[in-house]
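User: I'm writing a short report section on ligand binding and want a predicted complex to refer to. Could you take this sequence and zinc ion and write out the structure as tokens? A short remark afterwards would be nice.
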Amino acid sequence: MRWDRDHQSEHVEDRRGQGGGGGGGGLFGLVFLLFRQFGVKGAIVGLLVVGGLALFGGSGVLGLSGSAPTPAGSAGINDAGKAFVGFVLDDAQKTWSQLYRERGKTYQPARLVLFAGRTDSGCGAGNAATGPFYCPRDQRVYIDLDFYQALKDKLGAPGDFAQAYVIAHEIGHHITNLEQNLGKGRDEGAAGGSVRVELQADCYAGVWAHSAKARDLLEMGDFEEAMRAAEAIGDDTLQQAGGGVVRPETFTHGTSSQRMRWFQKGFVAGKPEACATFDASEL
Ligand SMILES: [Zn+2]
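Assistant: Sure. The structure tokens for the complex follow:
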């Protein structure tokens, strides 16, 4: 992907270095695959990968303990990871602003929080093991950049455009939220609301990718990188990878082939109207 390595986004909040670090780290990939297995009821809207750990609005299951001292100088550094997610965030939101404008509507931008280990959110504690998520209550995307290492090493989806897809997917949840459709996402199961919300976010990510391609931001292999990521985090694939049987009744995000299909649908159409997952008779 072509992007500006010096990019600074005014919508990124850097909370790395604000404590809460311990625990996550190397175990992360394994932990989140395991957690994924449990398929906790779809109380959470907007996790990219894990269906139910942060327990939005819950009783703080992960327990936000007090903050550790802030390591000097680690926050506020405009490193490559921060520049990258900020660039994708801004580019995706620019695209959505334009799409909204064309439809006579005004886009409300989301913010993105970079954290390390764990952080507080309007939806309860965010933890590295949850993977990236969007909180509708504070309209923020949360990501611990260690997830990208897991995406590459544990899930076999390397590449910058795989990483971009993750941000675009979360912004997709923001769009569904702005459209006041997130409430339809409560029930799990193969044709349930949760799966429809997630596939819509994949489709919206594809809509952004269409725009990025039109503006010549895509390089050879980028589309495939995003498709590989969509494939890697399908419910069926993750359940199999976790050593379990595939249980469609517990699906929250859709199968690998559905996730690829809806991303591609958005990518081909380039229009949010193509992403009507709630009305689709077949997903
Ligand atoms: Zn999601």
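A remark for your report: Residues 21-46, 50-75 have pLDDT under 50 and may be disordered. The chain has one domain: 12-275.
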